[in-house]
Amino acid sequence: MIVAPSILSADFSKLGQEVIDIDRSGADWIHIDVMDGLFVPNITIGPLVIEAIRSKTTKPFDVHLMIVNPEKYIDQFATAGSDIITVHYESTVHLHRVIHQIKDTGRKAGVSINPSTPVIMLDEILPYLDLVLIMSVNPGFGGQKFIESSISKIKKLKEMIVSANLQTLIEVDGGVSDKNIRLLKDAGCDVVVAGNYIFKSNDYESAIRKLKI
């Protein structure tokens, strides 16, 4: 299981040190939530912040774009230091083009789906993806409760990936903790995003270790 702490829940007054701390505590990836206040009802960070913290770790930057018209900003996020760029299925009418735009920068490409979007909508685009991010909460805010029906979505997506003989990773974001990590793993999840569970703990290393165990 790949553990990707979400810095959305970090202390932004010392963000660089927070990234260093979760790196040293066993994080595999660093998950970065980008929100524009349009696609979701919140505003977070942009390429300048990603560029500023890039030197704090060599771990992959897993950048989740919760923004409308992501095609306008792919090059900026790639140049800032992103390793994986994930866009929302619901955020663009030209998803195939955006995926290839990401790949043309040399970065891995992912697509995320909201809780109300069925996984079958990814059938045509799935062969082009390195990763699918299933939102197990409604995107926009940290600290929300895990939506239980996400388990069945993970299982269906895993069946699609296996049936097509693909290596696409399944990532889950929202309400992840040591209480549901086994269910996620058994359903077919490969990567978990954890924000509050890690950053609100007293011991980052212990929290990450619990998820991996």
TrEMBL record:
CDD domains: RPE. One of its GO terms (biological process) is pentose catabolic process. Pfam families: Ribul_P_3_epim (PF00834). GO terms for molecular function: D-ribulose-phosphate 3-epimerase activity; metal ion binding. It catalyses: D-ribulose 5-phosphate = D-xylulose 5-phosphate. Keywords: Carbohydrate metabolism, Cobalt, Isomerase, Manganese, Metal-binding, Zinc. Pathway: Carbohydrate degradation. Binds 1 divalent metal cation per subunit. Gene3D superfamilies: Aldolase class I. HAMAP family: RPE. This is Ribulose-phosphate 3-epimerase. It comes from Calditerrivibrio nitroreducens (strain DSM 19672 / NBRC 101217 / Yu37-1).
